[in-house]
């Protein structure tokens, strides 16, 4: 069975995409959130990024040809912007840490 034939992989991919889309839509109103709403949004983003990192690691470790091609495509796409997948995750973490720091200011 191929990597993408797995119901678990399909389910997680679908959930990740839907959760990401929802968070991005919600994030448009981030400035209107109260402090607790902002904290919750940041927590949800961190959780989603952790799930995405695990999902990407599955691609990376898989022997499946299509999974390897997907990783190469992602690396190429990110490379066009001058970043690696790890740099993408690192930058997102920096952004979330800045958002947290902003919440701590009086």
From TrEMBL:
Organism: Tumidithrix elongata BACA0141
Protein's name according to its UniProt entry: DUF1825 family protein
Pfam families: DUF1825 (PF08855)
């Amino acid at each position: 069975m191929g990597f993408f034939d797995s119901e678990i992989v399909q389910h997680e991919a679908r959930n990740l995409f839907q959760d990401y889309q929802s968070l991005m839509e919600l994030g448009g109103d981030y400035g209107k959130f109260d402090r607790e709403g902002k904290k919750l949004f940041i927590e949800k983003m961190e959780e989603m990024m952790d799930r995405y990192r695990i999902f990407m690691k599955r691609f990376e470790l898989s022997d499946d040809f299509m999974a390897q091609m997907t990783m190469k495509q992602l690396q190429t796409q990110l490379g066009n912007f001058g970043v690696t997948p790890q740099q993408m995750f690192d930058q997102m973490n920096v952004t979330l840490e800045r958002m947290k720091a902003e919440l701590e200011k009086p």
